[in-house]
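Thread title: Can someone regenerate the structure for this chain?

I was given the following input by a collaborator and told the matching structure tokens would be attached. They weren't. Posting the sequence so someone can regenerate them.
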Amino acid sequence: MKTIKEILFDSQNYLLNYKIEEAKSISEFIVSAICGIKRNELILNYEKTLNINQIKKIEKYIKDVSKGKPLSWVLKSHNFNGIDIYIDNGIFVPRPETEELANMVFEKSREIENPIILDFCAGSGAIGLYIASKNKNATVYAIDKSKKAYNIMIKNKSLFKLDNFFPFRSSKINIFDFKFDIVVSNPPYVPEFMYDTLPLNVKVEPKSAIVAGCDGLSMVRYILSKIDIIKNGGFLFLEIGEYYTNKVEKLFSKFFKRFEILKDVNGKDRFVFAIKE
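Best answer:
Regenerated them for you:
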């Protein structure tokens, strides 16, 4: 038998041997989930003894992470801006930058009476789920071409009991006969030539959710070609890579008179905010 303090120590060292970043926090998340103890309260329970089933499960999860499996896949859960969404193997894991994007859209949605919002390339539906759960006056549609992503969105809709969140499976952005006040997307945006340089725990995720053509902008071009789905006076929010700001500016200047490239919390060019006129 082991105490919580001992299993945390062993788990952290195991991950460090595999050069896993954030070994300490990953160990804490896993132990917290298995023991049903809040992460910030683990220290208060250091001497609590774990049973054999808990130990085996923790050790299995730690090994899964050491092999490159994303923590969110291991736990079947991902905390996105304070809400715990269901996630599973083969689904793109939302990044902290996307939480920033979701917050921007939520704040803008509050300025519009009964806004109609589209989350394109939605994946797990994290952005749309967050907005729909925070703004009950919003009607949020979410589209992804992946059948697995669509099924995950349906599950999350049920878990959150949201009657203002509507998932669809499609590769097309313009499948509706009405227009949106806000369109938001975190599309794939990594250039093909950069793919081999990505960490293992990123490359295990669906490549189609990561790479977008030779320059990383193929999905941005597609979205811009369909901006008629946005109402006049409506808004477009996109997450982009920090690799090609000049190209993004040239692309957007062909479609929008007013747009702005915004930086993320790390000071990198990460988002585009545009107004359709």
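The chain is about 40% helix and 20% strand.
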